[in-house]
Amino acid sequence: MPLEAIEPRRLYRQIADQLRHLIDHGEYAVGSRLPAERVLADRLGVSRPTVREALIALEVEGRLKIRVGSGIYVVEQQPAAVVPGNAAIEGPLELLRARAFVESAVAEEAAVRARTEDIERLDEILVEVDHRHSGDELIALDRRFHAAIAAILDNAVLVRFVGQLFDQRINPYFEQLARHIENASTWKETHLEHVVIRDAIAARDPLAARAAMRNHLQQAHGRFSRDFGEPPLAAAETDLRPVRARVVA
Questions:
Q1: In a 3-state reduction of DSSP, which class is residue 60?
Q2: Fewest beta carbons within 10 Å, which of 67, 149, 170, 195?
């Protein structure tokens, strides 16, 4: 049998594996509530965003139910909800960090090269946002805005790459997290950040454009990292004795 390359297990997948193991072995019974995100993160010695990605993965697999304002509960797994536990899917927050790295540089160069017609194209997209209300329509316009900025560089590879990065949000983990987080308020924040990016590019200010894009995607990361409105710590289950920090960084 030929040797095959071994893909390192992403940190959030390792945490999901630990929690799944505890559920399977009865440490957390169906109907019980898991410790709050902040407690899990503290006991495991990892960031809350990493814990969040693990919890979302388990919710998509049908092992957990996240109830905003109440907590995270173990549920009876439904076969139709199953996603393979070893699915090679990037975490939503990992994707946003990658986009911040790439697209801030793209925006910086776009501010140098932008022509009048490029700014007009961005304006058309921003105006159209006011007439769209469904999540799918807003996501499509969000993609068009970022792709239009990449198109200013007149490089088909970059346009395709930026589009592919964006399209990776169309996966079960990102979509599940978005259901908990995205609403009219978050879309308004996104729109205002887009306007700042547009203005920096229109002003032909490369440093401001880079900063505006980085800030936008960092803010998006922050929005997706917000807690689910967990109950106060005193009211939440804090015992995590079965979990041990067996994570390999």
A1: helix
A2: 170
Q: Write the pLDDT tens digit of every residue in 189-218.
A: 999 999 999 999 999 999 999 999 999 999
pTM over 0.85: no
Q: Encoding tokens for residue 52? A: 């969040």
Kindly tell me the burial class for residue 126, based on how many C-beta atoms sit within 10 Å of its own C-beta (0-12, 13-18, 19 or more): middle
Q: Give me 46's structure tokens.
A: 């990892």
Closest CA to 20 of 245, 248, 243: 243
| Residues 6 or more apart in contact with residue 33 via CB below 8 angstroms | 71, 72, 73, 74, 236, 237
CA–CA gap between residue 141 and residue 168 (Å, rounded): 16
Strand 71-74 with 64-67, pairing: antiparallel
pLDDT tens digits along 69-121: 788 899 988 664 555 555 556 778 888 999 999 999 999 999 999 999 999 99
Contact by Cβ (8 Å): 168, 95? yes
In the chain, what are the domains?
11-88+229-235 (1.10.10.10), 92-225 (1.20.120.530)
